[in-house]
Specification:
alpha/beta; Nucleotidyltransferase, domain 5; 3 domains; five-stranded mixed beta sheet
């Protein structure tokens, strides 16, 4: 018997039970044959006697905290007037109190809208934009694809520019500054090109080539579309240094996930950096951690070797040595365990 049945079904069951009891059946046996509990039938009979009907009332009852009629009307008018602006039941609920019109919870406003089949306007879908393809000169090797960005250390009142090699994940260069402009970008890349020995590639023959010639760039610099990345002076400097600029899509920080993850690890694994208030101390500590990051810290993204190992070509041999060591250790464990098992079997005999 389901939890809810129509009133006429209940009356029919009561009649069947009553006829069975009249013919000598026990009340409990009649209820058992009809697969309905004895207590439930007694409750139906008492309700029919006192109320006069077995039809269930509509769910919800009559709550004392229900909305008043004028509040429902005010909610509908609020949606009609401010819906195109706010577009959210949460904002509309706060808009009602902001305009001193109606004071309701966001969930209440949403229920009223659903009950009256009022749909809140949705923003127009954004036109999907795909990442532009990499130019033909790009190859998956160190010092070919650099990604760079800037992060803030508010307690020291400084910004930190950083360049990372996508292939080796090596922290190429950093620059601590009080300003965030194209001047710092030029200083950062000048130091990075010099430290990596890439200035030797800027030969007169290369620089005489057209800007869009695929043989001209010496590397690709990947960044978002911040003002210092897209500034006219930055574009001129990158063209002068034969660097191809590559930008992610607007409003899509995941396109620069490598550098965003890098800054997250730097601040997460060395949280004391964000507590430093002295800019000089911050710069010294960042330079110290840069060496540790490149030469000591094992990077999961490149197979648990250091970025320097991967950058200078030692990564594949380190990974091969680990696989060889794992196989050798397994063989030794098998041999030792088999020998000990054989010795224990011989002693038992």
């Amino acid at each position: 018997m389901p939890g809810r049945v129509p009133g006429e079904v209940k009356e029919g069951l009561l009649k069947l039970v009553g006829d069975a009891v009249t013919q000598g059946w026990t009340h409990q046996r009649a209820c058992g044959v009809l697969l309905v509990s004895d207590v439930r039938v007694h409750r139906w009979r008492a309700r029919l006697l006192h109320v006069g009907t077995l039809v269930d009332r509509a769910p919800g009852g009559n709550p004392v905290h229900r909305l008043l009629d004028w509040e429902v009307q005010a909610i509908l008018e609020l949606i009609e007037e401010w819906g195109p602006v706010d577009r959210s039941h949460r904002k509309l609920a706060h808009r009602g109190s902001y305009t001193d019109t109606v004071f309701v919870a966001p969930s209440t406003l949403r229920r009223v809208a659903e009950k009256h089949q009022v749909n809140l306007p949705e923003p127009a879908p954004r036109t999907p934009v795909s990442l532009p393809p990499w130019p033909d000169f790009v190859s998956w090797e160190p010092n070919c694809i650099w990604i760079w960005d800037v992060t803030h250390f508010t307690r020291a009142r400084r910004v930190v520019f950083a360049i990372m090699d996508i292939v080796s994940r090596r922290w190429i260069e950093l620059l601590v500054s009080a300003e965030e402009s194209s001047t710092q970008v030029q200083l950062l890349f000048s130091d990075a090109l010099q430290s990596e020995g890439l200035l030797d590639k800027l030969t007169p023959e290369r620089l005489d080539l057209a800007v869009d010639d695929p043989a001209r760039p010496i590397l690709l610099a990947w960044s978002d579309r911040g003002p210092q990345m897209t500034a006219h002076s930055t574009r001129e400097f990158m063209a002068l240094m034969a660097i191809w600029q590559y930008h992610g899509r607007p409003h899509t920080p995941t396109d620069q996930a490598h550098i965003e993850s890098f800054f997250g690890h730097i601040k997460g694994e060395w949280p004391h950096l964000e507590t430093i208030t002295d800019p000089v101390a911050l710069e010294q500590e960042l330079h110290r951690l840069r060496v540790e990051y490149n030469t000591t810290r094992l990077h999961a993204g490149i197979g648990y070797v250091t970025p320097d190992d991967e950058h200078y070509g030692r990564g594949p041999s380190v990974r091969r040595a680990r696989q060889k060591g794992l196989r050798q250790a397994r063989r030794e464990r098998l041999e030792r365990n088999r020998e000990s098992k054989g010795n224990s079997s011989g002693s038992d005999g």
